[in-house]
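Hi there, hope your week has been kind to you so far. No rush at all, and the record is pasted right below.
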Amino acid sequence: ESEDNTISYPSCVRDRCDWPQSVEDGYFYSDWRSDDYMSAEECPYKEFTCFDGYYPEFGGRIECNVRDDFEKNTEPSCKMYEYDDDDDDDGDDFWTPPDPGTQCREPGQGLLPSEMDGEEQQCGDCPMGTFNFEGSRIDSCIRCPIGHFSSNTGSTYCIPCEEALRRPSTTKFDGSTSIDDCVDPDEIIETFAQATVTLDVKVAGRDFCTGIDNLLYGLSNVILWDGHFTECRVTEEEDTTVTEMTIEITPPAKIAWQLYSALNFAEVHREVASAYAELGSFYADRLLSYANYLTDFGLSWLGFDIDPSVLNIDAIGLHGLDASFHGHCRYIANSDDHFCSEAADVNENSFPNNYYAHFTVMEGELDCFSNAGRIKLRNRIKESGIIPCQATSDPTCELTFIDCNEDSVYVQIIELRNDEEVDLDEEMGINTSEKKTWTHQDGESTVKFVASQYAEGCNKHTKGIEMSDLEEAFNANSENYGSIDCRSCEEGNFINHIGMCQKCPFGSWGDDGVHCNSCGWNYNTPFWGMPDENKCIQTNNWEEVRDSIYNDWESYMRDSAGNNFFDIAVTPTMNMCGPVHAKKDLDATCNEMFSEEELTWPDELNLEEWTIERIVCSGSTQVKPAIDQLCGQDWDKSWDEIISNLFGEEMEQALMDIPCFALTMIRDLEDADTSNDCANLDEDEYMMSMPIELPALGMGMETSAILIPLFSVMNNLETMNFGSFADAGMAMMEVMGMDDMNALLGWSTANNMRDIGMSIPRAFSISKFSFSTEYDEDQYFCENGEAKRRCEGGCDYDQCRRFAADMDFDLQCERDECNNCAQRFYYWEEGTQVEFERCASCASDFQERIDNAVLKRVFRNNVEAQYICDEGWVAEDCNSRAKCDYESEDNTIYYPSCVRDQCEWPTYIEDGEIYSDWRDDDYMDAEACPFKEFRCFDGFFAEGGNRIECNVRDSFQIYRESECKYYDYDDDDHDDEDHDDDDDYDDDDHDDDDKGCYFPDLIARGERVDHYESEHYAHYQCYKPYVMTPNKMMTMGSMSSSVQLASMHENYNMAFCSDDRVYLPECLEPEEAGHCGLPKYIENGKSIQVMFPKDLMREYGETEDDYEYQYFDDDVIGMMKEVMDDWDSQHQEVDAVMPFMARYICDEGFVMMKTMRGDMGWCRQDGTMEIPRCVRSDEFVEIQFKLTHSDKMKMVDKQGNVFGGIVQAMMVTSEGYSEDAEWEYGCNDGFNDNAAGAICRSQGFRHGTQVPVSKKVKLLKAAGAMVLPQSMTTEMSHEFGWTDFACDYDDTVAWSESCTASRYEDALEERGAKAVCFDFDRMAVECYNDDDFGIDIEVKFSKKKITCNAQGAKKGNAIDLGSLGLTVTFMIDDEMIETDASYRRKKGYMTKYNLRGRQFDCISCEIHAGDTFIAEGKTCKGD
């Protein structure tokens, strides 16, 4: 306010704070100078943290009170965390599984082979390449799965290769013992384009084949990549029944290896899975017993009388799980040649001779049209001895099924050894009277085949055939009978294992019509059948990014922008006869159990009288009236009409009509004769067909690689027997003793409900499935041949440093989809886009070497770089950044300096090893100090972190010592008697070795706010202005069942411990967190209830089954909606586990200063929050307001209600008004509408605005400077008490922390005359409830006139609707009437209309602005 903007600067004095130099068992990590949000009135401080196992006893902050002679508030103290060992529980835990009976109790150990025959195996450390973990329930050491290794003995886990090498990598086999076993995935898949993955499964204890095999074989024909079950057989081994199942699948090479790696992971954990599977009967017994308990105690409506003894699930175990992998090589590969390693030696003799044979049906009926029938025939031909060369123990030929029809089958025959030629004339009996015959057993049906003819295939593997060629070769009437016309396959195709032309799979290409070549691990193709290598699109360039001079992620490979578009048409069909007949059987059972009166649905359901069975029976027997009520008696829509609406403008109605389409047919069949599978009915009475043609669907390259092969075989759904699902289900239930559901559950209707469920798949079929897609190269590639990339995000203008002379250009930027989204800078000149090519660059000027350092990377701005000092040297002042003065003539570069490394690095880590240092960190900050990282051996952990830093600036001070401490897994195993005579044994030395989870007192930007004596959880809060991101791991259900916690509604900011791992919440910047982070704890109080956005979903009819909704009264629901309605649509879509509202209470001895919503706190859209405060009684102050001179200011309505006036205020303590309290005026200096709203909310309104004082009530005096004339009324004699009252938000009360104000006398003292207020400066407000424009409508009518009294207002101000060009429509019982209307400001819209003799219930009116609906009103005779 001064003429020259006089600034009052702070003063600095010498720092005489006696700061401690170190922290025992901890270290300083921050002080006030590094706090970007430190208050300007805050004393200096330092913050420290404690090493693992310790916590700050009096908080992690030391303050120095400069005002009080530099006195410190406390000394730093780190106290050892005392874990709670008292976990003993003598009670019987109902859910605790039985002890596994393992001999080896220590993690990392297993039974090792004995050195001498006959000796018992002893527990010992697992060898390298194996591991064992706590809770495995087995004594065996587990092999490291593929992609992992273990180079230590006694390991509890294996190290992933990708984690160790920080790049895509794997191992060729499991059980790897060294990081040297980790290889680039391209070393595995580079020599083949596809591979066969086989999984053999052995399940002991039951026959899981009978009744299930038809389903397995039927599914085989709709599994992508030629996936199929090759066998399902049952054998007897060691007094137990063993079921063996084998499945094969042949995906593209990369997917095959990923699949095999996943199966191998399951394979090496097979014993663990089997050990847990054996607990199935235990948990089944517990669950069923618990269900009975619930029925007996409190939940009688369940009606259970479960008999667990009928279950037959004991002794079921996984006895075998073997996965294998074989690449499809270009030669006859040996059985152990998994990766086609001999590909370089391919020659003509490497290819097998192959033939094709034709067999015809001699007897029986061949099932070649069902999925299961084809797969059974395929397996019979492959596995059984059809011809002699296949039937020996050392076969010389291999047979493969190709195709079949109703009377014949086509087979390929391959010679397995080129030096032993197969004589097919003799093998098949061609040209003899005794042609080879063989039989095929399919269930009860037997089919006999006889050899017809064979033909030589396209040997030397240079040409292929089509199916039409085979049909021609084995057509006796053809000129080519007995010979095959071989053809060259087109580019993009290869000759598959049966000699036919087939498209190269995704991720490969082929240019010779013979072979396909792998694009590589980091590539894919947009479609199958790609003809050249240029169609391989790179998907990952991690190593290129890492090794580039920029070494950043700006150049990482963006996703492909292309899409493939699919057309899919499917026609599901349902034979409703079976389900309806099964429902009738249920109704018959229900009628035997209950009377008609008992089945009548009550007005109110009493669960003490109704059981689930009675509820089900009531619903089933009264299905017709229920359907009539839901759909209407006259509902009659065609399926075509429904589908048209579904993809049109009536989607919601169509979604209602779809169930009605099925339900009305059920209703019509209720009284029909459904016996004998509806033999007495017309087909259209019980067959329901639902054809759907989906709109074109676009899928990206990676998704297409799965969906195109999948949808291409889905037409086989037309021959799928979906009833096999029901057959398999019944077979499984019978095997496990669950087929008689009545006996199991104790219900009389359980078997009927089972039959209804089984009838649905038996009734279902797919009568049509069609799929088509075409490859559009323009979707994926630019004109320059580069792949199009999906460019997201803006540009980084810092990457284009401009010269001073170019700063006037309005620089623009876009990303180039044809150049991996590279940034392109440009500007506009006279309407033309001009490329900006003058970004400063010194990239080529940075020297590869400077004194004692080498160039590490050039930053993306091209004017800065980072250097790494040579061995024995470190960057001076921890600064390794080089900068270029690009404005200079010669691009002068200022290089960093290196000094001798005087850091006293540890040379040895006890129980650990140093494995990395700052030189290995590709993304080390250019101002970071040198460091070394170490890791501890198995069984030890790094106390205080695993990084050792050397502060070059501070005399090469080492900031953290290295120490590996031993994990004491089970203190209970120690025998105290061993130490009775050991005077040197000290229990205290082992207190910190207890196993458990440690919760630190400090987290990044926050601290712990409780010290519960629990090893499972703790609460945290963030320092201002940071906000807490709730612990999603907890809310997503990551806790083990052993961790007993309250619901997430009360503990969203909780840290928890599960399986010896600690999950901590985070403190983030508000913008980064995306929400305000309501605190669990406030000063002297805490939240007792938290509201989440999901809790409102129920109010809008949107629910999720797996979410436990909170229930609130109407007032709270109203407040929640108010808060959420203040957010725009984008912010309303917040994460469901982010709390946006909470209820608080104060600790004992404290009182609450409430918000406008009482004890509630809430989040605002901008990330701020409004929460109540808890203060001591003697600190409690609220402000009471009253509005005066309202009549003179015309702020009283006709009913005498005051809605504005001059404001007077009085301070109130927790004990009420004080004796000397007086009403005071407020000065409107600095006053704003948000503060006016705070005043109005105290008067019962929602909003307010500041208004000038009416001339009728102005008094010409300067308050605080003159004495009021005696003639003034007592009411007008009050002095000014407050000024500068302003609030940041329009949802506060006056005492909110979002509001500020000054005492008038303080303002006069600080600002002098500039703070003086006059009578016209008095605070005055006008209050209202609706902040937005709105219209209230009252409809009235008489015999001759209808009135639509519409009154508009915004912020309490009346709006003349007549000036807005609105239109009004009048309706009688929702039927529009033709009439003219007039408008008067006070009476609204009126029309003359004769209502005499007119019968009606309601009259309404609607107001529109053009075609936009604005408001409506309605009145009815009964109102």
Remarks:
- The mean pLDDT is 81.
- Residues 853 and 869 are 4 Å apart (CA to CA).
- The radius of gyration is 41 Å.
